[in-house]
Amino acid sequence: MAMNVSFLQELMNAVAEQSRALLPKALFGTGDDDNIEALSRALMSGRGEASGVAIARQLLNRLHVASSEERAAFFAYLADELQPDPIAVSAAARAYLTAPSEKALTGLRVATYSPRREFFRRLNLAPGGTAEIVALRRELLRSPKPDASLAAVDTDLRSLLAYWFNRGFLVMRSIDWQTPAAILEKIIAYEAVHEIKGWDDLRRRLDPVDRRCFAFFHPSLVDEPLIFVEVALTTDIPGAIGPLLEARGTAGGKPPTAAVFYSISNCQDGLKGISFGNFLIKQVVEELARDVPTLKTFVTLSPVPHFARWLDRTLAAEGTPGTHGILSADDRNALHLLRDPRWVEMARTPSAEIEQLKTVLTALAANYFLVAKSVDHRPVDPVARFHLGNGARLERINWLADTSEKGLREGHGLMVNYRYELDDIEKNHEAYAQDGTVAASRAVRSQLRPAAKSKGLSSAVPDLLALPGIVKPKKALPTPRDGA
């Protein structure tokens, strides 16, 4: 596949190079063949596919060296000038309302079609155009204070990219120690959940017989993974990440019975909001079940990226008018231990104080997953939303599962297992999609405090998704922004 794509790109480069020399100066205007806006207008002039390839390439080359002011002007041009004609839209809408027909409906569709979509379609003619367009969207999303007028630009870009990157175009590839180094370097760089500390660490994750890694690729982004998942084959459901990352080979040489998805990383920021993970996990489950017949259990070992922040807000809200108190004075005293930087070391030695902290923290985690909701009545945890939306079941809350600096800062050391039961995936997915039902094991539900079971906690906890930097999702099935 890579050879075919490379040949096609070389061919397109040759076409662009030949066509550029033949383009009439009148196409741009005097002295404007290096002006970004003039090039953009020329691209929309419709002078033929060969000319379009050359203009698109020239425009992308110019954008590469453009100043921040020039790039801002380019985005403003997209936002302000490449819009449907309001007069034509009004006329088409009136015609349809006056005499509804298929012809009138087609006219309305044509009138409302965004010129920006045609612009990006033509820009995609350039060699490597798809990757450049993904990079443009990444730049758009990273704007510190995006202009409201650019929202429509992002809407058009996201719609096109979702079409270009639909499941039919994706190719799943196995990643192992024999994979080309260019791809392996990107696996190290893109790992978003558990940092890969160099080549030796990567080899521990790829080379042993009980390790697997799978990634989705797209023909237009050669050797650029879109998303990848790391898998460990074990004989039980793990409750901590440290031993899993360090282990080599299944215990005692026994055949593996569990496949553990311990890291899922999205690689392309410009494709944010376009879901690949649900397809990837389901395809990996099918492939592993076929290739390793002894596997009976498919689970994750997932982080809880927003739990610590949620807990801080919950503690601040407890006891204020209109809230439901679920914490006793003893509970609050137990939680004070989290302020001691030595608490993890203390937790390794059993004591009544530590046992109380464990009980309170896991109970609050159960409330966090099962009761606390965001404004769209879905769980506030992004990783939970992803796996529950895929049809998984919340299986277990694990105490002291990730004692890394990041794990303690974000989740007070907690991690969870989501279980994918092949017979229940569709049922769980439908229940979650329709009314937000969280599929959870009896063990997790038993950890809920009675007050939370009877009264609910949603009114006691400020909306986590209102925090700065967290985007409120519009759909119930987001991608795993913080890894899974």
Describe this structure in words.
The protein is of the alpha+beta class and 484 residues long. The protein has 3 domains: 2-164, Malonyl-CoA decarboxylase, oligemerization domain (Butyryl-CoA Dehydrogenase, subunit A, domain 3), CATH 1.20.140.90; 168-300, 3-Layer(aba) Sandwich (Aminopeptidase), CATH 3.40.630; 303-466, Malonyl-CoA decarboxylase, catalytic domain (Aminopeptidase, 3-Layer(aba) Sandwich). It contains 22 helices and 8 strands. The protein has helices at 2-22, 36-43, 49-64, 68-80, 86-98, 102-112, 115-123, 129-141, 151-164, 181-190, 199-206, 241-246, 277-291, 307-317, 329-335, 343-347, 352-370, 382-389, 405-411, 425-435, 442-445, 450-455, and strands at 171-174, 211-217, 227-234, 258-266, 297-300, 302-303, 393-398, 415-419. A 5-stranded mixed beta sheet has the order 1-2-3-4-5, sandwiched between helices. It has a 3-stranded antiparallel beta sheet with strand order 6-8-7. Helix 13 (277-291) links the parallel strand 4 and strand 5. Helix 1 crosses helix 3 (49-64) and helix 2 packs antiparallel against helix 3. The two termini are 29 Å apart.
Helix count from the secondary structure assignment = 22
CA radius of gyration is: 26 Å
Tell me the helix content.
40-55%
Looking at CATH, the homologous superfamily of the largest domain is: Malonyl-CoA decarboxylase, catalytic domain
Beginning-to-end CA distance, first to last residue: 29 Å
**Rough shape?**
globular
CATH class of the largest domain: Alpha Beta
Number of domains: 3
Low-confidence segments, given as residue ranges, are: 454-479
E-strand count:
8
- CATH fold category name of the largest domain: Aminopeptidase
Average pLDDT, to the nearest integer?
84
Beta-strand percent range: 5-15%
Side by side, the strands of the main sheet go: 1-2-3-4-5
Structural class based on helices, strands and sheet pairing: alpha+beta
